[in-house]
Write a structure and sequence with these properties.
Blueprint (H helix, E strand, L loop, with lengths): L1 H5 L1 H21 L5 H34 L8 H34 L2 H5 L9 H31 L7 H34 L5
Helix pairs in contact: 3-4, 3-7, 4-6, 6-7
């Protein structure tokens, strides 16, 4: 067991294997319907990606940024050169995975247009409006990650060459947009959960 848990790749593979076992268990109970499995599968990937994305967003804002001032200067390069670039890799690709799988789920369930039009399309209802609000907040957050936070972090961390003043300005811009995403994450998650539970959108 220690060998399994000492290697992250093996741990993740084992987790997916257990998920596959659960799938076959559920199928054995007679709960599997082939027509709905595709939607379920992409929703599962959507949740996994979202946990990665929002988890790292909250890590940056609740843990790393508030505590950077407490780290001795000689230790800060370990964060900037090792921890932050790795976290930002999973952060931005978690955002991409969340958006792509979310749009696929909406398309497969037949409410993509209704949601993106915020319930203004013919045949829309309050559930479409609510999921649409969540989707648009997620899209704004995804845009911030890829086109504001990541380019500025590359300069701030020295991945892209920049002078000291540009690095400082880029670090502040990245922080402010990361805080913006943290602010938006709460209503976004509320809208997503409300659409699934208060309005029973499929």
């Amino acid at each position: 067991m220690a060998a399994l848990l000492s290697n992250l790749r093996n741990t993740v593979i084992a987790g997916f294997v257990l998920a596959i076992v659960l799938f076959f268990m559920y199928q054995g109970y007679g709960g599997y319907e082939g027509s709905t499995f595709g939607v379920f599968f992409f929703r599962w990937l959507h949740v996994i990606s979202g946990v990665m994305w929002i988890g790292l967003l909250w890590y940056f804002n609740f843990v790393q940024i508030p505590n950077m001032g407490n780290i001795p200067d000689e230790q800060k390069p370990a964060i900037g050169k090792v921890i932050a670039p790795a976290a930002l890799f999973w952060f931005r690709w978690g955002a991409m995975g969340t958006i792509v799988t979310g749009l696929i789920v909406a398309m497969m369930n037949g409410y993509l247009v209704e949601a993106l039009s915020l319930g203004l399309a013919e045949g829309s209802d309050a559930g479409h409006r609510m999921i649409g609000i969540g989707m648009w907040l997620g899209i704004i957050m995804w845009f911030n990650v890829w086109f504001v936070i990541w380019p500025n972090q590359k300069r701030a961390l020295g991945i892209v060459e920049a002078d000291a003043d540009t690095k400082a300005a880029s670090a502040r811009t990245a922080m402010l947009f990361s805080r913006t995403n943290t602010l938006l994450s709460f209503p976004m998650l509320f809208a997503m959960v409300a659409a699934q539970n208060l309005y029973k959108i499929s």
